[in-house]
Fold each of these.
Amino acid sequence: MSDLGALSRALADAFIDQFPQETIEALESVPVAEIVELLQTQSPERGALILSRLSTALATTTLQQLKPDLVRQILAAMDPVRAALLLSSLDPKSREIQLDNLDAGLARELRDLMSYPEASAGRLMRPRAPSIPARLTAKQALKRLRRFPPRDAAVLVVTDDNGKLLGLLDLAEVVHADPDARLETLIHITTPVRVNALTPREEIINLFSRYQLRLLPVVDIEDRLLGVIRQSTVIQASQAEAATDLQAMVGVSRDERALSSPMSAMRKRLPWLNINLLTAFLAAAVVGIFENTIAQFTALAVLLPVVAGQSGNTGAQALAVIMRGLALREIQVRHWQRVLLKEMLAGTLNGIAIAIVTGLGVLVWSKSAGLALVIGVAMIISMALAGLSGAAIPLVLTRLGQDPAQSASILLTTVTDVVGFFSFLGLATLFSRVL
């Protein structure tokens, strides 16, 4: 029986090593107790790999059910950035219990990482980044590089004896250099792109994109190396930011996860649902103003969703473009005049094109040229103002120092519904004699 158990464990180890992604996909769908049982049979390094790739919510739940000794070993073997992320997801009391269980040096390092603002360079950097002294020769540097993990050898971070950043070197440059040449003589760019620990994530993403970086040093006020941010980390950060922006735009908390508890989800979503309810009543109130007109011409009620739907889509298109521009630093608030004019003109031109198609469709359906004209004009007005609103909302929120993604979709839906309903029903009331 023991031989069979040893064989099963060996097969499990081999599967994890050769198919890590398939392993994680399988673990995401099993009870936490089974993940805990598996981790108890694995080495700390393999356990760190598994926890690092699990979703944050599942990883933190699993972490809290492991024995303290195993937690200490796994966190010591884990990348500090990921370890800090897991611990920061715990409630303050549980976090302190876990930190107190760690070695003093590691606990201090993780506390330092968690002390930086959310989505800053300090949270993204790898603090244990190896560096190479500039006084070494190419031959000495290559010998030292053999002790580095492969991913840390592609780009060399060169510092002086006090840890001050001097420059970056590609491994190829060192390999092809004279063996006796000192690294300081090989550095071509002595002022590489660098950031401080408080630099926001959006700016870091922009730097990687603009300069095609593979590695970005993080330095303190005296230019001493604190850590490095790698391209893979930025890609993950970009994906995380896009996902959280999508949640925020529809009124979902940025820190809610798919496996969050129902009560937690309810508490974080309910306030925005109530706000959405109030805005829906506002749109309904606009419709109520024209109750008599709708009662007289029932076709208006049939066509209301058409106008609101088109203006809503127009606004959403403008919102998506502006949100992308702000996120990638393609535009700033100072560009508001050009941006608003461009989106309003785009909405107007699209409105004219859609109005022609809509007007012809309504004319064939209702046999009323007046109704076709009213919905056509209303379409142009509502789509022009929807494009303007979709651009203005994130710019206004940014100017006020607020997150431009925070529930922008809810605000936009309110504006487009009110504008669409009011323009269509208002024109129908003014030109009721020709309907």
Amino acid sequence: MEFDKELELEHLLFVSRRCRKCLRTFDLIDGFYHTRKDRGHTPSAYAYECKECTVKRVSKRRRKKVKEGEYPDW
């Protein structure tokens, strides 16, 4: 058996990944952020949360909570 002929590069690299929050499948390069800039382009260098879920999470946490009727203290 010759494994070199049966294996392709796509079998060794992940070309799509499933988001851990929304459970949808996205393209690895276009759908996920890098965890660190210096990690390179290996599949382990990308996050497990898609870009859409990351933007929702960050904007939700950064939003200031002002109670109704209170004047914000600038």
Amino acid sequence: MNTFLRYFVSVVLAALIVLAVFPAVLSRYRPLSAGSFTLAHTGRGAELFKTNCIFCHSLDGSLARGPSVKDLGMQAGNRREGYSAEQYLIESIVDPAAFSTSPSSIMPQVATKLTDSEVRDLVAYLMSQGAVVDRKRIDSLPIARPPEPPPRAPVRLEWIREGEQIFRGKGGCVQCHFPSSYLAPSLETVGLQSEEYLRNSIVDPYKHVAEAFRVSVIETEGGVVSGVIVQRDADSMTVALTNPTGDGNRMMVIPLEEIVRGDDGDLSIKTTDRSIMPSFAESLTPHEVDCLVELMRNLY
């Protein structure tokens, strides 16, 4: 009898625990019900992501051209103060330059070919990466699209041919601008930048210098070394030299113990706001600059 009583009490306690916990669990996942979010939204958003975003943004955290969307639904609310996760994602899609730290975002305005409903579907899918989706909240937020960009000028093939000759010859651009270069950024997708940005990068390259390509001046026991720091560990740093050595080598590994230290004990390294790239305002004619711009604005 005592055994039966203990069993009965255990069953009753288990039932009470389930009744106490189940409403809380149901409440937490209520946004997934038919009234707020359906699998259809996930499917449409997933298809839109595969069509427009997967080429630059991974789902698993792996490196790609753009940031991964892994756990984005959980992180998006912390990206910009005063913005909810859903607001941040909507604006990031319809106006990619809104939160960009560069003067011109390389992310294309995919929303120009998406309806408002499709933008919301895509946001719902992105929110599902790490967070509970509230479709009613997404649908309640406004979608403010930026002004349409001016129409692109027609492609001038003859100028592109001239630009390529300058790029490989007189301008010497190919010496630094190539995939995996430590001296200068690759020009892949550079055509997504504005024409003004491209022109400035040729005639006034110091106006916007990416931090990764800023020149550092390093004082060593053997003299001063100038270049771009491409790697640093506990014992040494690798520098892409501003000027190649006598044997043509542009890379140098400098042991940290050979770098002079200041009175405060810090390594004598000064990072400038300059880049290795010179200005071509004087060495190229206005037409040659136009040809280089024409070449770059058509690189995607």
Amino acid sequence: MQHHIELNSELTFAELNKQFPKRCQGSKGVFTLSSNANEIYTETGRKRHFIAPDEQIELSDSTIAICTQWGVKNIDRFITKAKELGYIITAC
């Protein structure tokens, strides 16, 4: 995500959400506003997003936190969307 945003520095929250809709991850979404991610952590004690200051990503209109909740059941949806945007992803 960070690489994609660096290449598309003018992306807004709404535009990125169209490219990587919530369903790409599942219930948490691929990303959320940093303020929402911090609220989730404060209320639940569960760190569901990368919320450290150096992990948050600046968009043209907001700051986001990427979801940490990935596994074999949902990573394929993300990879499919990334490939649709022209990224080449291979297994290590």
